[in-house]
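Same chain as my last thread, 670 residues:
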Amino acid sequence: MTSPHSEDLLKAVASLPSLPGVYRYFDAQGLLLYVGKARDLKRRVSSYFTRSHDGTRIGHMVSKIARLETTVVRSEAEALLLENNLIKTQQPRFNILFRDDKSYPYLKLSASSWAPSHTESTQGSGGSPRPEHYPRVSYYRGAVDKRHRYFGPYPNAWAVKEAIQLIQKVFRLRTCEDTVFNHRTRPCLLYQIKRCSGPCVGRVSPADYAADVRSASAFLRGETQTVLDELERRMLAYAEQLAFEQAAEVRNQIAALSKVLHQQAMESTSDQDVDILAVKVQGGRACVNLAMVRGGRHLGDRPYFPAHVEEGVVIAALDDDKGGVGVSDVAPTEPLAERRSAPPSVEQRVLEAFMAQHYTGVPPPPVLVLGAPVDAHLIELLTEQSGVRLHTVFNPREHRRAWLDMAQKNADLQLARLLAEEGSQQARTRALAQALDLPEDALDRLRIECFDISHTAGESTVASCVVFEGHKMQSAQYRRYNIDGITPGDDYAAMRQVLQRRYGKLAQALREDESGPTGPHRLPDIVLIDGGKGQVGAAKEVFESLGLDVGRLVGVEKGEGRKVGLEELVFADGREKIYLGADSAALMLVAQIRDEAHRFAITGMRAQRAKTRTGGSRLEDIPGVGPKKRARLLQRFGGVRGVAAASVEDLASVDGISVELAETIYRALH
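reply #2:
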């Protein structure tokens, strides 16, 4: 039997080295199908082409392979890191894929440039307080700066904000930005309600504030007894010095901290940093629920929903280096030999995919409580890659069992919610296909692009294009177009321009492409236009000039009185317009897509308008305008717009702004 693959591909497979590395499969159009790692590239990759996979999902993928790429690395741990970086960035079709569209939040303590000396007075450091002497506690998300201290990661923003409130309540650290700190002349409201110690106006010395920072840091690390002992020593020292007011302040801190610890008594355990991972698989979908314990406090959880579960699980089975798998920590009632010979469950495959992708980007805590056993070899690789010695627990007891039960319950609830939402969305897609007489055999591939025009009395015209595919909005494929060269306020001309820019090159590619409608150059099945006959007519002109099918054009016309639910669909190919009904699932989907296009257009228009009105620049971008001068300008003129409206003479009247700098500012903002 002849191979369906080219001779060049088979030669490339035969010439692979027996070394660790990562391999990537591509189809004839250059789309990435699958990314895998191997301790032995030659043995692993050859297994795809020497075994029979007819009639299986693996066979379906293998039949599409047209090209192979490999990268040799020094160890399997490096291969694990590279594999999962590629999976997250390239999103191959046949890998179990966890999409994490945002980084984790942290609690940040800004760096301090001051250290107390033995001779420093505790009553103040003299002169005006400087913000670098008083570290600020704040919410942070993004790349970390080693100059500052970070605590976390936290599962969500709410957990960080709750921690900041505790820090304010007990240790009274400042949360204001440096520009606010530098311009305070009297204490703010937070000082009045005892949520800040007032460092901006010298109500606390750098030495005392530094002690509060140390205590807050220890508290966030879970060293609560150390914090209480230190506070007690400070209180007694103040009492011996007859500084009874300061002693009373520390006493109040101890009382506030004791109250917090009492409220968290149910959470207090010997564990400091733990991740709890529960998994649920149902209806072809899966949920991994990650709960976090940091510093002995349960911070909450966060659900993840992978894509390509069924395909990824089946193909991952071929990627086992050995027939059975070892589990990292196991139920004591099950014989080890039986566990090693049993094939991995779907839950295990999903959990292993999550751990590999998650912990190659986020440092793992030393303890992982798992809802399913995982391959011990994966734990070894994660330990080697992260430098953290991992201890995993399956079938936990006592408080860890309670944590896992809570995480599992949330995984069950989150997956049930997702399935209900997806069922509803799929029903809407089907209803729209029926209403427009479209084929219903490939609804997962139904693609809708919707356009809207937004401007303010003709100023800063912006067109939006949003995409619906796979029963959901695809925000990564949204596009905005700045419209110029037209009469201000001419929506028809704006629509003609955006459609020409969107589909002009695609139409040319379609004429040259012989792969047909399923090839890489594919028009949307429906092009929605937010407008009635006039807008649809303008769109029809563009499609006819490009040689495209005008039957794809559908306008969403406002109903009588522009009331929601009375919209009608207008067609460019001569069909009578139709009214779907206010309760129609099809109309709900159309309205959802139309409203998203409107939102995306209007936010872009407002940003463009603001940029235009401030000369395309911000004060931060102007050379010579530092934080202090910027603050003075904003205070004098009430904001950026006021600064932009000021004359050179007005700008030069601000303390610290020379005539030359005023001219620079004026030119930058006009």
